Amino acid sequence: MERARCIEMMYPELEEPLVVTIMGAAAQELYNLGHRENFFYLQHAMGLASSVGLGLALHRPAERVIVFDGDGSVMMNLGTFATLARYRPKNLIHIVFDNGSLLSTGGFDSQTTSGITDIAAIARGAGVQEVVSVSDPVAFGEAFVAAMERDDLSVIVAKVSAVGPEVYGMDLQLRENAFRFRRHIQGLDRGVGATP
Ligand SMILES: Cc1ncc(C[n+]2csc(CCOP(=O)(O)OP(=O)(O)O)c2C)c(N)n1
């Protein structure tokens, strides 16, 4: 299963949710489908996409918040699962694309390579109730639909191959993205929807 395919499957459903991604390949693959003002690509701050997502979800309970994470990134912030479980925002979906690799910085092995570390087990052990691990596109699609329909925190660990985009580059700098993302959220209060 390829992460780009999973993101492509979700893309039609990503018009309204607030979407936070890690940097690198996952961000690029979403951006390549077409940027939307409700997308925030968290550059540099490896591991903290789920923390940003948690803050957004708690602060904006009426919005669905979706986080695209990576195995290498989530390893930098394993405490996130305990914090997510404790606050249990019903509107947050945390998707960890586990490719067993630090792909965006050269493809070094991560702790999940060859199944050494089980991220779904860590999430369950931390107290998250709704955790699934999937490795084929149909199961991924079903898990995503179920999470979108569920009124509870969901963690989806998606086992994907370690492949990414051939070319990297976004015409959107971090600060510009952050300002526009914030304005988008402010616009929701005025009833202004997502601007594609
Ligand atoms: C604190 C910190 N250390 C290192 C980096 C460099 N870095 C950026 S992306 C990345 C790999 C991310 O791996 P993963 O989350 O598994 O996603 P993938 O690239 O495999 O899609 C690394 C090491 C960083 N941005 N921040």
Q: Which value, in Å, is the CA radius of gyration?
A: 15 Å
CATH-level-2 architecture: 3-Layer(aba) Sandwich
The order of strands across the largest sheet is: 2-1-3-4-8-7
Q: How helix-rich are the residues, as a percent range?
A: 40-55%
**SS-based structural class?**
alpha/beta
Fold and architecture overview:
With 196 residues, this protein is α/β, with parallel strands linked by helices. The protein has a single domain (3-189), classed as Rossmann fold, CATH 3.40.50. Helices cover 40% and strands 18% of the residues. It contains eight helices and eight strands, in the order αβαβαβααβββαβαβα. It has helices spanning 3-10, 25-33, 49-59, 71-75, 79-87, 119-126, 137-149, 174-189, and strands at residues 18-21, 39-41, 65-70, 92-98, 101-102, 108-109, 130-134, 154-159. The strands form two sheets. Strands 2-1-3-4-8-7 form a six-stranded parallel sheet, sandwiched between helices. It has a two-stranded antiparallel sheet with strand order 5-6. It is globular and about 50 Å long. The relative contact order is 0.20. Thiamine diphosphate is lined by residues 22-26, 44, 46, 70-73, 99, 101-105, 110.
